[in-house]
Amino acid sequence: MSRRFDSKAQCVCTVRGSINHDEYFHVNHIVRPGETLSSYGHESRVGGKGANQAVAIARAGGKAQFYGAIGQDGLWIRDRMSAFGIDVSGIIVAEEPTGRALIQVEKSGENSIILYPGANFSELHEERFKNIGDRWFPESSHILVQNEIPLRSTYYALENAKGATVIMNPSPLPSPSEIRNFPWHLVDWLIVNEEEARELYESVAESAASNTPMSIRQLVFHLSAERAFERTNIVCTLGADGVLAFVPAFHRPQTEHEAPSFMHLPAAKLLGEVRDTTGAGDCFTGYFVKGLMDFGPHAVVGTDIKEHDVARILKTCVQAAGMCVEKRGTIDSIPTKAEVEERMF
Ligand code: ADP
Ligand code: NA
């Protein structure tokens, strides 16, 4: 059953994903095997791609509800997310400790990370999880997932999306065989960086991937031509080169040289230097989802959301992500909608 498009209706996005306690240790050099090293600084921050992206939706002005798990040690993270206006009633407190990232950072910016998935991979609460999913998925206009929770939990979200717009930032990428078996047809918008686009293509290419080096345009073109991605809109972020988007509804090209089918937007002009790119991709993704939410539930790309609308959304995203790299921190550096608009006009 297709429901009617109403741009005035409230949208709500369920973010089903990871929450972490990110611990930063500032060190003179990254610890070597056998060495005991004192750090000269320490910070605890909210992390995890799911949490970061939910915060970005909220900072962009969208209604987000978070569906995931922490341990008893992570209640402060839930409070911090709630303070951003996110509905955190879908966060289960599990027996396992909160997922954690131990991050060593050198002055040069070089870092090294140990991840402990913790409660993000909790297997003990299937019933409680199901209750949240059963309640939230049918009422969500948008569902956003990454890949920092068990893949079958992500499947469950996609299978229960029931008419919601599904956005996936499949990071970190599943294994090649998981990629080949993934139900990509349930994903409306795929958001990847250049490296992920290459790996996805190499994993799904039915004809043996040619060994000739491909430009990112050729690559995204070939990726979108694969059966698995036939109906998927692809947004590929290019770091300092901005973003490339491929939306089949606007124009299905015959070759990668047909420019109109691709939208390319340069990165935002920075006011200062690049300080910290962590979280820029998550900021981009959250702003992108909020941009779609502005069109109301059940908005159809090509009919309700036109090419210039997508271009405008992407412009806002590169501006927001650019502001995120100007500042240190992850969620702390995600700008508000008002701050982004001030820089755009
Ligand atoms: P990820 O961090 O997920 O790998 P990217 O590196 O592609 O993603 O960055 C996401 C977005 O952040 C880019 O599309 C761009 O808008 C912005 N961005 C990243 N690095 C820079 C930079 N050096 N200058 C300006 N914008 C940047
Ligand atoms: Na930042």
Q: Give the strand order of the largest sheet, numbering strands 1, 2, ... along the chain.
A: 5-4-1-8-9-10-11-12-13
Structural shape? globular
Q: Can you name the CATH architecture?
A: 3-Layer(aba) Sandwich
| Unreliable sequence segments | none
Tally of helical segments: 10
- The amount of helix comes to 25-40%
Q: What features would you describe in this structure?
A:
The chain has a nine-stranded mixed β-sheet, with helices on both faces. A four-stranded mixed β-sheet has the order 3-2-6-7. The protein has 345 residues and is an alpha/beta fold. The mean pLDDT is 92. The chain has a single domain (13-344), classed as Ribokinase (UDP-N-acetylmuramoyl-L-alanine:D-glutamate ligase, 3-Layer(aba) Sandwich), CATH 3.40.1190.20. Helix content is 32%, strand content 21%. Helix 6 packs across helix 7 (216-225) and helix 9 crosses helix 10 (337-344). The protein binds adenosine-5'-diphosphate and sodium ion.
Keywords, separated by commas or semicolons:
345 residues, alpha/beta, UDP-N-acetylmuramoyl-L-alanine:D-glutamate ligase, 9-stranded mixed β-sheet, 10 helices, 21% strand, binds adenosine-5'-diphosphate, binds sodium ion
